[in-house]
Amino acid sequence: MASEEPIIRVDHVSRDFQVGSETIHALRDVDFGVKRGEFVAVIGRSGSGKTTLLNMIAGLDRPSVGRVVVDGREVSAMNESQLTQLRRRTIGFVFQSFGLLPLLSAYENIEVALRIAGAGASERTRRTGEVLDLVGLRRRANHRPYELSGGEQQRVAIARALANKPAIILADEPTGELDSTTAAQIFQLLVDVVRSENVTILTTTHDRMVMERAQRVLELSDGVLLAEPRLLERPETRQPVTAPWSPRSITPAGPRETMPVDEDEDWDRWRPQQRPQRGIYQPPGSPREPL
Ligand SMILES: Nc1ncnc2c1ncn2[C@@H]1O[C@H](COP(=O)(O)OP(=O)(O)O)[C@@H](O)[C@H]1O
Ligand SMILES: [Mg+2]
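A: This is the predicted complex of the input protein with magnesium ion.
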């Protein structure tokens, strides 16, 4: 039986940023663990500290106070080369804006991650094919990002994140730029890979559907991890409402004035979203730059 030791341990972490004479408390004594194979969503309004938290876990930033332990090793104490190894082998990333290299095909975007991690040629070919199959994009292998829809680009990014068989995937608002149908498909894909690849996922999200279907939801509010998530509650069960409710799961019953009006940009997220622009199609095999 594997130990019950959490694969991610965030141990009383605070992170302060000094901006001029002001100190911003981005995280305040945040303390939690994530078990191996769990799918956890971190929610919270814009500026609540979600990205800062993921950065701590990935070793992209260090706590002002406290420590982070990933897979039994203290990230907050690692040197640069240990952190590089952690990010290459233990942690895969998925970003809201996909983060694909525009001149590389889907295949090459994935393969380059394996190349950086030092995989041999035959292993790269095998694993790239495998993860392309996993995300259902084998037939799009030779397409560049601009020849793919937003959902397809995010699938490539997920395949790339999985390429090195990481123990953990950290995803920062992975469905934030996708329409609701595509977001649901991407979310389902993440649920599937938790099972098939035995990976642990920690994702930040504004997406109700993600929060409702995650195994566990953690809510940050002004850098504080709340004991109970508030944003999950529905307007009819709690007033006043502070959440950016998604119109696809909740139809406003009354006039707009009775609905929450956030002072920040969160409402804009629920307006119909434009699909990311698609480029002009070029058939696979058209000339492109070598790697
Ligand atoms: N590098 C930084 N320098 C100064 N302030 C920062 C920095 N990174 C984040 N912050 C601040 O920390 C708070 C949390 O930010 P962030 O983690 O990006 O929130 P979220 O991802 O929930 O929107 C915000 O007030 C933000 O302005
Ligand atoms: Mg963020």
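The chain has seven helices and ten strands. Residues 235-283, 285-291 have pLDDT under 50 and may be disordered.
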